[in-house]
Amino acid sequence: MKNRSKVVLAVALTAAVAVPGTAVAAGKLFEPKPTEAVSFITGDTAQIADGVAIGKNVSWYKSSGLGPSAMNSGAGVTAEQRYIPTDVFPGGVLPAGVTITEAQGINALMRIGENLEKAGLSYDDVVSMRVFLQNPEGEEKMDFAGWNRAYRQFFANTNLATGATLDVQLGSTTTKPMVVNPARPSRFALEIENLPVNGWLVEVEVDAVYPK
């Protein structure tokens, strides 16, 4: 990551963990320097960070919650299908295994990228993420697997040890990611009863750290 320090923890926590350049002091395992943000990541191919420590003098940006853009104006589309990104899926036709949540997740993350760019940032600068998912019509629960496939198109798709790009899933097909990005934000995902826009299944909010 170009703009922040990163500590990779590849062992299980015991009574104490040796973190490079840190020490246990005043009962604290680690405290970031005022001008650094440090993501704690377990292993070389983890999907998310265990957490992130942000120093008091770090400049950071918090996006608004963003859902997918209405891009699919085809005749007879449902409220949920309206948010399929037609620049990725021409005509709103989803390939084998791609779910509505997955398509909407790609759409929402594309909007996040546009939002970050306006702030002078990129996906690589994201250190934390909050995700709100609604169950698709006719389903009893959120499509978390579909969301995760969308997420891996933009985040956590390199091997941190080797730098190699990892293949990701698009529905039932293995592909190269849409955006190659080593960043693993800390993240939570919640299922909620209703998102604010009819047809939305995904809404995302991120925090990003400005390069030094």
Key traits:
single chain, 212 residues, alpha/beta, 60s Ribosomal Protein L30, Chain: A, four-stranded mixed β-sheet, three-stranded mixed β-sheet, 2 helices, 9 strands, globular, signal, YjgF/YER057c/UK114, RidA family protein, deaminase activity, RutC-like_sf
Topology:
Layout: E1 5-9, E2 37-42, E3 51-54, E4 60-62, H1 100-118, E5 126-133, H2 144-152, E6 168-170, E7 173-175, E8 186-191, E9 202-209
Parallel strand pairs: 1-2, 5-8
Antiparallel strand pairs: 2-3, 4-9, 5-9, 6-7
Task: Describe the protein in words.
- The chain is an alpha/beta fold.
- The chain is 13% helix and 22% strand.
- A four-stranded mixed β-sheet has the order 4-9-5-8, with helices on one face. Strands 1-2-3 form a three-stranded mixed β-sheet, with no helix packed on it. It has a two-stranded antiparallel sheet with strand order 6-7.
